[in-house]
Amino acid sequence: MKKALKLLLYFFIFLICGIGCGSILYGLYLNILNTTAGNAFIDLNTNTYLKALFYIILCVSVVICPLLAFVHIKHKGGVIQLIFYFILCAVIWLAVIPFSIYFKQKLISDVKIEKEKLSAHYFRKIDDKVYFLTNDLSDYRSSTVVVLDTSPDGKVSIDKMMESTSGDLYKAAEPYRDVNIKTSFSMGRNTLLPDFQFLADFADSNFNREWYYWLSFLSLGLVLCSLYAISGLFSWKLIDVGFISIITYLILYINTKCLSTPVIYSVIKKINSSTLFAKLGKYMQEPFVVFLNVLLALIFIITGIIKFSVEKKRLRHI
Fold first, then answer.
1. If pLDDT is split at 50, 70 and 90, which confidence band does 205 have?
2. Model pTM?
3. Cα(143)–Cα(120) distance, rounded to whole angstroms?
4. Which pLDDT belongs to residue 227?
5. Neighbours of 107 (CB within 10 A)
6. What is the pLDDT of residue 140?
7. Is there a contact between 164 and 140 (Cβ–Cβ < 8 Å)?
8. Residues 230, 300: contact at Cβ < 8 Å?
């Protein structure tokens, strides 16, 4: 019972600290995205803070089951701890995530966020061209911009530019607002990390359709929750931690990057078009990935049961 309560304590620590710290950091990130050189941070509206909060709730909810599996590695408990774990997983995937999506769609309205405009007297380099604005960009008056082409045959030109005609400057800075901010903060797009934004969009898409489509997203919860069964597979705890970390990463990568990477998704799409998966596709999104999630969950659970049985027999003969 003591270890079961310890699991419950860790659950609330992970949930509260994860959501609290994550929301602050992600809100700061959203603020940086809208910042331009020479201008102070603007106070984003309530919608943006709510967006950060609900996004982090989803992220923390997805990773909390593997984190609890780590707790089980350090503090192995019995049946009561297992029951507590199942209840906590059910609360996360059947209550916290669905209700967070529901309230996000109810509370966040389509209010247009005021975006910062590019300020004057800064050099902004895009490819071979360097732009220098003599005035802040405006919707109402044009700004003089000096364009220096740094290519071998490049020249210096002077143009007029308004906010509505400055698309290239903003496009080059995406997802930031200013290319100078992008240069300072951006570390490049990491294709090796799971894409939680894709996961959030996928959850929203399934939530807004018939109830059985939600089972597609729940299959991810099933396979992540089943990690508990193999969390004591090895005699060395450090190996267990490393093993669960790698499996968690692969599961999240398959459920996000593999579906958002065109080359890999083209293969998955062909599999989904086969007879069996095409029929399942009428009731769920990405039937092959759902099948893979369920299959992995069954393998983990069966492996855990075999491990438990072998361990029990070994203890009887001691």
1. confident
2. 0.83
3. 9
4. 94
5. 13
6. 67
7. no
8. yes
